[in-house]
Amino acid sequence: MGLFDRFRPVKIEAQQAPQLMTDSFNYYIPGVLTAVGRDEAMSVPSVARCRNLIACTIGGLPMELYKKSTGEELGNPLWLEQPSISQPRSVTIAWTVDSLIFFGVAYWRVTEVYFDDGRPARFEWIAPGRVSFTTDANTNFITQYTIDGTPVPMSGLGSLVTFQAQDEGILQRGARTLRSAIDLEKAMRVATSTPMPSGVIKNTGADLAPAEVQGILAAWKQAREQRSTAYLTSTLDYQPTSFSPRDMMFVDAIQNTATQIARMMNVPAYYISADQNNSMTYANVQDERKQFVALSLAPYINAIQDRLSMDDITARGNIVKFDVDSAFLRVDPMERLNVIEKMLSLGLITLDQAMEMEDLTPNGNEDVTSVQ
Hints:
The protein is an alpha+beta fold. It has three domains: 1-194 and 244-325, no CATH class; 199-241; 331-362. The chain is 38% helix and 16% strand. Strands 1, 4, 5 and 9 form a four-stranded antiparallel β-sheet that branches. It has a three-stranded antiparallel β-sheet with strand order 3-2-12. A three-stranded antiparallel β-sheet has the order 6-7-8, with no helix packed on it. Helix 2 (45-59) crosses helix 4. The two termini are 17 Å apart.
């Protein structure tokens, strides 16, 4: 029986699966003003690309439990393999990172606790829009959290675990950039969906009644939508007034906006095709990945693993860490084997440890005849 198997979990009655996509994403945090909702922001391709690069990459990284003093890898508790009973770990982590990116805060609700010490045994991710809180008037500390308007305990079963990002989230600090990108997308959509350029119909004859003018405009629009040509009388003349997408420099504007979004979300511009002058080669791909981890992923990785390593979740002396090296920064196979061979020759690792480093099943040392 393992260390974590002897703890008996206590479950919440009638636990419900988390709702991953709800209107509550488009919300305003109390005390925080933002002009852009999450769904609007995600409608911009550059934002969606940056979000997926960060959230999905971190979501796919394995998490391990280590002894802080020695760095020894310990057996993972069940919640570290699958925090929520209703969804894979990668999904829970990805949506946690999503909340940190957009709102600067993420929430997990404790759905099970260990009987022995009361630490959490299971969680579920909660959309930030479902959470509100009240604060003390003097200290401004949060005194009560509510989910969908219902108060929840401030500790123990049913309470919230909060993750704080290292800034206020892009919906607040990048509101103007996001609004510009959204408006640009709308302008492009109008330009491409309009069957004819905007313009005016000039009447060189007698003035027409308003009802006749409206009829002419409606007939003109319908005619141009249904066929490529339309007919005007000798007293009417159509004069285009709009510019073409090329004249309006939509391509340059989109490229510039994508670069600004990449900067805002701390993602290299060439990752979202916003840098036309970059050329990647096999020789520098590892260095670029290291830079991506250090500058783009590290703030969110640290926010999650540091929170999960706190004493209210993980026993004192143990820490939770993402295994970035083996999952994302693996070097060339021959280079890895050369390093392992050198470590074996120096006696720094055993053969079983070397096989484990390469995800190979170690040879068993136990005598199978003694197993009952």
